Model the fold of this input.
Amino acid sequence: MTSAPLIELRNISKRFGGVRALDDVSLSLDGARIHCLAGENGSGKSTLIKVVSGVYQPDEGEIFIDGQKVDRLDPVTSIAHGVQVIYQDFSLFPTLSVVENLTLNTFLREGKTRIDWTRARKMAREVLARLDVSLDLDATVETLPAAGRQIVAIARAMLADARLIIMDEPTTTLTGREVERLFRIVRDLQADGIATLFVSHKMREMLEISERLTVFRNGKKVTEGPISEFDERAITRAMTGRDLHQGRFVAPNLAGRKPRLELRNVSVGDKARDINLTLMPGEIVGLSGLIGAGRKAIAQAIFGLRQDMSGEMLVDGVPVTPKSVPEAIAAGLAYVPEDRLSEGLFLTRSIRDNAIVSSMERFAPHLWLDAEKAGAETRKMFAEMAISAPGIDVPVGTLSGGNAQRVMIGRWLMTQARVLILNGPTVGVDVGSKEQIHGIIQELTRKSDLAVLMISDDLPELAANCNRVLCITEGRIMGELSGETLTEEALDSALSREIEGETA
Amino acid sequence: MRFLRSSDAIILAILAVAMIFIGLVNPAFWQMSNLFSLLKENVVIGIMALGVLLVMISGGIDVSFTAFAVAGMYLTVRAMVALDYNGLVLPFMSAILIGGLLGLMNAGIIHRFKMIPLIVTLGTASVVRGLVLGFVGTSNVNINKMPDALVEFGKTDLFTLERANGSTYGLTAMIVIYLGLALVLHLVLKHTMIGRSVYAYGADPEAAKRVGFSTGRTMIFVYVTAGALAGFAGLLHSSMIWLANPRDFVGLELDVIAAVVLGGASIFGGRGTVLGTVLGVFILVMIQNSLILMGIDTTWQRIVVGAMLIAAVTVTALRDRRALV
Done:
């Protein structure tokens, strides 16, 4: 060992009430290294970030920085030692300019009472040059895309003389190319002597970017080592404690059946053109494409959320033109949006209230709610979706991401939908739960003769759950993969062809 | 030119168009005497609007400032009458102090209990108005009782002009005080950490806390300044109209908030400029003044102000939403 690690945690424990969020955890982070911290939701990753950044004080254990024992690590000390956390929401000021977002906390740290705008601009220009990116300094941060905001957050951390940047799930909102740029920046930071701690549950980035990997499960460190010692299977096993077998979905025999959903020459504003699509009962059809390719617009149009759809749409052979959500529900359509927290769930309300809200016509036909029926059907859904919660009366806000997503999907099944549109069905759901949700979707599709349209950026998810995948490019269906040709690699190369086509 | 794309430039353009239009309908608008009286009407609403702007940038809404203005004004004038005191500096300091302390109460409640500013200020406004009327008095202090120093001060003109018939009219010196305060607030908001902390807090309170702003201090700055400006504006108002009425300013909240929103400040916080607010106040006062010149009934004026508020909120909300996409 040549020098002391940048930060060393020894036997750290942290309890919240009776729950051990961290249980005798030791972790050592070296300077200028890219370290990845993996684990499912609730495994203790966030608690660890908060211990390192000084937000939480551990109940037991010691913290060493540069080999020196630190008795009490609070946020100010942590920042003074060069620890910077980039939270998932970036903690930026949307209505303020890029310059100001970059420099405010430097001025604050220096205890300035006045703002020197000339110096601020100079600092901002220099740090962006170091990152080799160009941004309009006077643009307000809200006008930047997620990737741009992330760069502002990283640059701000650099201005704070960071030696260790902790990134919490940094790639959730980025497209493939933006992830590449982030990786380049992280490597540049490393060349500048800045260490990065990636907190993630995505395999690809762990394997591609990190040098060392630590896996957490239930507040304990399960395994640690150089990344070369791991593969996807080993990481999944470490994170979930079991082997996962992703069974591939095979559609039942469709011969002689009538299509559930048909789109004929459908166009949606300038987002999608000439979409012809047939969904048979028992089928799961994927929509693959870059963000902005028009997948979401198609889904929203089918569900009556857009008024600029033209062309013909048939559900079970009956032409429908839903102009609103109630009309779409009545036509047997259901849509589970991407962002279930902001677009779908009422967090302070119970599972039951969340489950029945889209089926009010059935449960409350004459103004009064048929509580018995609502309760019975919710309990049935609760069992079918294998939701783990004390009961149907607990608020949805207390559930984990995976269980919340099950409530969301269950709600739509309770509308007696025949066509289910899923947008990012397992975004933000941990690996184990994801597997189960996939199983539930597949089983329901088979059992209830649903037709499912699945939009996802997660290529393995599409490959494993769909019997067909349509590739959408700039609002058109450009190809279809099914059966033997439907593989992760084929989906990936279809996407990269599109990226090349776009840049050419 | 970034300025040409800013909200301030758009408001300036709206103002110019409105002035040309009003001038065409009613040429009397451009008479120097009318313009001077317009500017005079800007002063009190404008100073109050500066306080409301500050609260709005921080993401809150203040409806208590008119009550604080009444408290600052009426308490001070009654004390002057009772003590037979005839000065200027001390009374204005007392009005500022009363407004500031009441603002401190707002800040304390809002910050300590994390409550919605609109509800808190509705409550404090009602309490303060009630206390003034219940414990201090309900009768006006009229011109015959008003302290001379105040009346004389309110009469001060920068310069006077003579009409053809020999009567004179002047431009009130109070406009200098108003624009001076506006300039100071502009500099504070633009160039000091406390000023930027108001924008930061309005943009995202959680993020402001995380970068290390003392948000309690920011809240105190915002509400104490807004209260102090209100108290000052209240006393200035009574010195300009030679009357201290404990039931004054009822319904003025709407006008002032409308002016600030018209000036481009966002009701969602984090956005707003002093220049925009000054222009917004001018537009509002000018339109009200023109309605009077055209002999339109006061009930219709309320309708116009309400409609302007709704239109301005809609436009700024659309702007803010577009920015988020």
Summary: Chain A has a mean pLDDT of 85. The first strand of chain A starts at residue 7 and ends at 16. The domain at 7-240 of chain A is CATH 3.40.50.300 (Rossmann fold).
